[in-house]
Structures are given as C-alpha cells and as structure tokens.
Amino acid sequence: MYKTKVQELCHQKRWSLPRYSTMKDGADHDPRFKSSVSVNGLSFHSSVSCKSSKESQNDAAKLAFLHFTSPPPPPPP
User: Where is the DRBM domain (predicted)?
Assistant: First the structure.
C-alpha cells in the first residue's frame, strides 16, 4: 500500500506524518470517496472517485509517493 510507503518516506526524511482528508459523495447505498494527502507542505488529490475511503487515500498516497521518488526530468537540450 502506498500509504505505508509515504509514511516510511516521511520518517526517513524526518518530515511530519502525512495528513489525509476524505470526502464522501453519492447515495448511502453507493457512496463514492475522494481523498487528499498533505506531505511536506504539498497536497495530492486522488485522481478518481473510489468505492472506499481506504482506496481513495491509497490513490492520493500513490501520487505523493511517485512525486517524491521519481527521478527529475532530463534538462532540455
């Protein structure tokens, strides 16, 4: 799960723990969730509506993790 990876990254970098917020939408029998996570002063939002809050938080965490661990793009020629 990306939530764990983001938490481990924050621990390694000595950053504050990630903070999640989740919003529920839709009918009670078919709820949809969107989440955001704040990591080191930056916010990342789930890209799609999910069937569970756990899934939407993991989606937001994935975006944060990839942001902080992907290599920078090469400089323009």
Answer: 1-70
